Amino acid sequence: MTTTEEAPAGVGHRDVDGPRDRRLNSSLVLTMVLVLVVAAQGPVRRALSAPVMQSWMTVFVAVVLQALPFLVLGVLLSALIAVFVPPSFFARALPRQPALAVPVAGMAGAVLPGCECASVPVAGALVRRGVTPAAALAFLLSAPAINPIVLTATAIAFPREPRMVLARFVASLLVACAMGWLWQRLGRTDWLRPPAHPSLDGLGKGAAFWGSVRHDVMHAGGFLVVGAMAAATLKAVVPADWLHTAADNPVVSILALTILAVVLSICSEADAFVAASLSQFSLTARLAFLVVGPMIDLKLFAMQAGTFGRGFALRFAPATFLLAVLVSAVVGAVLL
């Protein structure tokens, strides 16, 4: 008895040709997509040539290109901490009392030659290694603002105002320590999500290092792109003449430049030159721009939310912004 003769006609034909039909359908879809792209290239090209879109693309590319090298630096430092630094090192390096660990961690930010994009993954690695969150957050805020590269850039951007370097250092360190102490006193464990990280157990040092690098680049890089897109969108729609109107009022000028710092999302190595170009504003307003920008901007908010959780970012970012504005106004009035 032959079972092949009893099988319904066409079964074998469908089994053989089914994948071929699916490949044909996929090719057809791909062809249609390519045809649509070619047909729509005229409208797409006109849309991209519009001044608003050119401004958007310029800001987006500038933010990403400025931030990406320092993001990679932060990821490499994070991987080095996670793989090669034993947890006992931090127990020895930082005071046991969190209140004392905060200013020590804040001053340690002066040795990291990077911007806010680098400090987020490093702070995440510190929390994973058992450092008290208050100290890690103080480091996160101080590192982008008081490291030698940033202070040198500030001195070059303000050659006739050496007090700006001192004012930036003092105001930034005060805000970082104050936010660390504030988190220590009022922060709750459930507000801060421990940074996720792949398990590195059982891997060699090299494999664990590159595994950590790949994870952090993909994780933090995605949020960097989201923040850069938001910054470019807001920058493209804000009228430029608003700045000239705001500069005439001392209070409004400080608020205007701090909001601008959040929107522009410029890396701390470059923000001093932007602040120096805003000569229509007072030195105090420009100091607020330099203090707020490295601590809370759109890309940094997105990266903080991705690393420590959205609930953390929604509480930490507004408090940091308000305190940075107040401290900048006071330090500017005293030193500038």
What does this entry look like structurally?
- There is one protein chain.
- With 336 residues, the chain is an all-alpha fold.
- The chain has helices spanning 3-6, 11-39, 41-48, 51-84, 87-93, 98-108, 116-128, 133-146, 148-157, 163-186, 205-237, 241-246, 250-264, 271-277, 283-292, 298-308, 310-335.
- Helix 7 (116-128) runs parallel beside helix 16 (298-308).
- The longest helix is centred in the N-terminal third of the chain and has 34 residues, at 51-84.
- The relative contact order is 0.12.
List the helices and strands and how they pair.
Elements: H1 3-6, H2 11-39, H3 41-48, H4 51-84, H5 87-93, H6 98-108, H7 116-128, H8 133-146, H9 148-157, H10 163-186, H11 205-237, H12 241-246, H13 250-264, H14 271-277, H15 283-292, H16 298-308, H17 310-335
Protein name: Permease
Keywords: Cell membrane, Membrane, Transmembrane, Transmembrane helix
Main location: membrane
Describe the structure in brief.
The protein has 336 residues and is mostly helical. It has helices spanning 3-6, 11-39, 41-48, 51-84, 87-93, 98-108, 116-128, 133-146, 148-157, 163-186, 205-237, 241-246, 250-264, 271-277, 283-292, 298-308, 310-335.
